[in-house]
Model the fold of this input.
Amino acid sequence: MNRNSSLTRRAGFPFGGSLLCALFFGLALTGAGCGGGEDSSGQLVVIGLDGATWELLQPWIDAGDLPVLGGLQDSCAWGELQSSVPYLSPPAWTTAVTGVNPGKHAVFDFQRRIPGEKIIVNETAKSRRAQPIWNVLSAVGRRSLLLNIPMTDPPDQLEGICIAGFPHQDHTGFTYPPELEEQLGEYELDTMEMRMEEGDEDSLLAVFERGRGMRKRIALDWLENEPFDLFWVVFTGIDRIQHTFWKFLDPESPHYDPEVGQRYRSAIHDFWVEQDRALGQLLAAVSSEATVLVLSDHGFGPLRYDLRVQNLLRQPDSGVSEREANSVYSMDPGDACRLYIARRGRDVGGGWPPEQAREVVRKIAATLRSVRDPRTGQLVCDAVLEKDQVYSGPYAEKGPDLTVVPAFGYFLVEGSREPGDPGPVIVPHPKSLSGWHRMNGIYAIRGAEISPGRKDRDSGAEITLVDLMPTLLYLLGEPIPEGLDGRLLRSWIDPAYLEAHPPQSTGPLEEDYREMTPDELRNLRNLPYIGG
Ligand SMILES: [Zn+2]
Done:
């Protein structure tokens, strides 16, 4: 791309763009124009709304409460965007920016077990083993602005700037260039609050609001003052408020209280109204020539009841022996949607030889697939996926042996390993967490090369996060590397544009690898569990 840097500066955020623009003026000569209002053809703006779902939003859009999102449905290609398996923010955003499944990018979860050690450590951006889109762009001198994308801490040394998103291993080292951190001053790192105790409602709402306001101001400043080819911001407050406040709007929640909940009934709605307004402000700052994609990394829904895995496996008629049940574990007892079966050579204290381990996995999977809620007769698991059904690539072995997609309103927890009567298998989920992720997220994309209208599928298949990287590279006029799992979403593109711009391909990308510093290694082991 050939765009000239502009020296025009507008008054920006206090730690504003003019300083960064000056800092990167040299680099900017190779790439984009300075400021959103310059020659901006070929620019791509991505706005992430972590945890958005049309199921919640459509009635509010229809009522006219979210005019910006409603307007996008009129002008964009839009529809459902399926998440990654598993549908947690770290693998989901990593899948979106790399175009490969977790078996290739190696981020399955917030945490990972160190083989042969009885220790679980947190994942960081350095766990990623596939190149993200901004590295591909950096290699050809194109500039990216990255704000709060989950799983980007510590940041890459990219052509551009980055304020990394959660999880954070430390309270420092989260920007690129590093000196940006000092310029940010009072910057508050993204909260990881997924749970809420009674009485904390107002203080949490204030945290969510503050985070959104701060990131909106930075995003506006960058859009106005920084040159870029790719701009990518993620707002995560939506995910957090939906995890914690969902019980107030869900009459079927075991914790729904018509009296006490009255005060917070509209909290999620009101947060969305503000988010919609913020989205409108950002869109107003984007050049009309830029291509704009609004998306979520996963959907959302109620979390009402838990399936207690160990209590299930210890039922007399479960078909699973006590030894088999004992060998099942999860990284977090409070989230057993991803299960591991202890295996010799991988897990401390032995476990099953590989052949037998496979048998145990199959037995546990069969038990989970058939379990029903005794109150309703409904199946509790929508899907119970064995490793080789969903993961492929050099890191597939690192993934969980079983990944469960629970049915609407259900969740899996480890449960009790106590001997004797195993007690109930399905119990209400604790009050502190009342909403959880679902597969179906959202997208809306507009631009001169986009063909508007609702599209939930492309060439007969669901549109998923893994398809984004190749499609975004195409929209940026770059060739698509071989070896990606995603495909170009042709249904998004105007047929005449596609014919005039046939997709180009290029060789496979090198594996991404950044060595950890001794400090980073130490921090990994010191962090408390994050969850969510
Ligand atoms: Zn979440």
Observations:
- The CA atoms of residues 316 and 393 lie 38 Å apart.
